[in-house]
Amino acid sequence: KFIPGTEQDLINRYVYQPLYDSTKVIAQQFFPALNRYLIRGTYSSQAGSEFQLNAINIPQGSVVVTAGTLRLTEGSDYTVDYNIGRIRIINQALLTSGQPINIKLESSELYGIQQKSLFGSRLDYKYNNKLNLGATVMHLTEQPITQKISIGDESISNTIYGFDGTYSSQSRLLTRLVDKLPFISTKAPSSVNFSGEFAQLLPGHPAALNFAGTKDGTAYLDDFENSSSLIDLKSAINWQLSGTPQLFPESQLDNDLSYGYNRARLAFYNIDPIFYNRSSSLAPALADSRNELSNHYVREVLEQEVFPYKQSITGQPLSLPTLDLAFYPRVRGPYNFSTTGINNDGSLQNPQNRWGGIFRRMDSNDFESLNVQYIEFWMLDPFIYKPNSAGGDLYFNLGSLSEDILKDGRKSLENGLPADNDFSKTDSTVWGRVPKLQPVVQSFDNDQTARSLQDVGLDGLANTDERQKYAPFIRQIQSTLSPAAANQLTADPSSDDYLYFRGPAYDEGSNGILKRYSQYNGTEGNSKTTEQSRAQLDLDNSASTSLPDGEDVNRDNNMSQADEYFQYRVSIRPQNMVVGQNFISDKVTSSVKLANGNTQSVNWYQFRVPIRNYQSKVGNIQDFKAIRFIRMFMTNFADTSVLRFARMQLIRGEWRAFNTENSTANVIADPAITNPTLDNSTVDVSTVNIEENGNRVPIPYVVPPGITRQRDFNNYTTNTQ
Fold first, then answer.
1. I need a labelling partner for 516 at 20 to 30 A (CA). Which of 135, 137, 366, 381 fits?
2. pTM of the model
3. What is the DSSP secondary-structure string of 431-492?
């Protein structure tokens, strides 16, 4: 143990504290000076009779196997599977002899991609019997796979030429001179031979690699084409109703209906393209369809509206699917059994105190090794029709989130409910029913008639059972509701019914798209069989999912109850929609031709939220090594708000920031400056490209001088720069 102060030099030299209190990724990033040693080792073992050649489609007869110096015979000593690249030794004597077995092979696997051309010519001229002259020229060219070549992978276009000549003649004079030497007498004729060669290599490169119209070739250290990649979060089917966030005090309650008292309705969906094809006989009926399809919050969004510099593969305008969140803070959400704060029409009072949230699993959990840097999304201006709206907040949670959506410590699984309606196989909770046994498979019972007994939602209760379970709640609240509101509540006490966006109920009233999706995320009846769909809606398929709902979002047969996460807040208010503030990094203003013939300008905003700049954290979470879930929830809204996301993704980078803490020890400065001072500067690593940020404000991104956008000759597009 070193003594601080007196042995500080030894401490600085030999103590590697990050080895014990940091992860490998953090230690490499923040303490690179300590990354000094590399441990290597070798091992040997008794091999089996099979060897993988790490190649496929090997040419027949190209494999040579030797045992010591003895060349083995294919068929008698070994066999080769040339398709998958595997050798099997069938001569057992070789395996027990202890002789080293060496395998050599040829594989064209790595050479069949790049096209190479070799041309050559040889000229010989016999001037006479004594003098011969010759010339050789050869040209080798490689066609580059891409216009941007990395250092070490440069394609060549080389020419080599050379001249040679030989002169040979007999010399009688030389014979006489040799004869004059003492003791030497020769009768054989002497000859004189002269030969010479000259060659020169003219190195070159394909013209496709020329830089900015010059003849100078270019190789890239990094062209930044793959400097970032994304984890897409835009598919609505992967999201599910979430439990109450820790931001709300009722989240601390357990096995108590008050846990869901402030939950309002949040619809999340990707609008089906069938609404936009009005010529199709399957298109649902819409009242005043032209104006309905001109509503910015349900209309079709074209790719070039958001990304004007992006070219479609087909050359035709492409529709851009969006993830839509429709938050109704005045509408009672699923499993909200509050009897106070309710208006006569059933709407909720104090909408700013309500919330609605969804969450999903993350397939890749280690954000540190992946170097996930941002939550990034492109969002349509939510205040087109309400510029004076008060707005609200959109929250993100990253980390471990409780899967106990109806908090009672018991795991609810629809497929665990008895298919024979035997309630002795279930336990009762304050919310409803949960299975006693864990189901073996993650699917419904094979008996299609049992679907109506299992597909009943997270509470494990069908509507008829809900009316019995929540009879006290219904009696207490009916006195404050109008007859219409009371009937609506009694029909679905848990407010968890699923309604498909097509069908007679919606078509007869010619309901709009927002209304059609308002109950699309219910969990009771959302997995109808084909027979049920045909009987109820005259459709072959009206299910939103074929998987049973449950409190096991990541399908690991476990229900996580831990709430340990980082929290981020994005303000959704008109006054905060400013580039450079509120995580907004870019804005695109597009002029949109609507279905009703009008043209209107709209704004799309790019938000980029650094995941390490969290607003707060919940629980004992320390790093980003185990980010199992992500949650979004909306709150503080006074009226209905619709958020449309053209992109919703996590951004991971190939580059990492060095010395992000601005540590003096890691400051790289002029050696003459012995003690560099800190300037409180920061480093922000992000990516921009011409397709998304060509109209960026205040500084638009442009293609750097001399750089030509790479063309994909298989279609009409040029690649992102």
1. 381
2. 0.82
3. SSEEESS--SSSS--S-GGGHHHH-B-TTS--HHHHHHHTHHHHHHHHTTS-HHHHHHHHH-
